[in-house]
């Protein structure tokens, strides 16, 4: 067996389990569709396209995790929630928390808003960590938001989506499913966040 063939087999073995989760894909990161309105019902005022006129101030406050790509790396617990608020020094802080085995596990960070790219935020949780990628694809500010992150390694990329809401009892948000699929993530790879007894 020649070496490159072995390498290929190795890559397949290595990558196969990852593709099962739907967050690995070949090629560069997908771009967020510009004609996003066509993905959601145009008759509904439920969804507003945020990327054209993202209002960071209206995005502040508490959001609850509703559904996310399976094996989402940053939250494996229950009762996931995020609070965005303005600190005394006028910077935006983010407090992520979740319940893991009965314990409240939280992480405090900062958020930078990109004024050139609407909906583009960069969270930072550790002093020396690089800025994270956080794209608000869609939001109506008062009910739901669809967030996407992607890291490109040239020939392949990793990506995650998650849906958050102001109220964790919200029903499904199928209006987002077509957008999620257009970003290359099958709906079957989404998992709901458990909010029982939170
Ligand atoms: C965790 O504790 C923080 C600080 O007391 C609180 O604001 C947050 O709501 C708690 N998170 C959960 C998931 O209960
Ligand atoms: C989440 O809640 C379920 C059901 O209450 C429980 O079985 C599970 O262990 C919890 N998960 C974590 C990470 O605490």
TrEMBL record:
GO terms for cellular component: cytoplasm. One of its GO terms (biological process) is lipid metabolic process. Pfam families: Lipocalin. SUPFAM superfamilies: Lipocalins. The chain crosses the membrane at residues 7-26. One of its GO terms (molecular function) is pigment binding. Residues 61-195 form the Lipocalin/cytosolic fatty-acid binding domain. The keyword Glycoprotein does not apply. InterPro entries: Calycin, Invtbrt_color, Lipocln_cytosolic_FA-bd_dom. It comes from the Eukaryota. Keywords: Disulfide bond, Membrane, Transmembrane, Transmembrane helix. PANTHER family: APOLIPOPROTEIN D (PTHR10612:SF34). This is Lipocalin/cytosolic fatty-acid binding domain-containing protein. It comes from Stentor coeruleus.
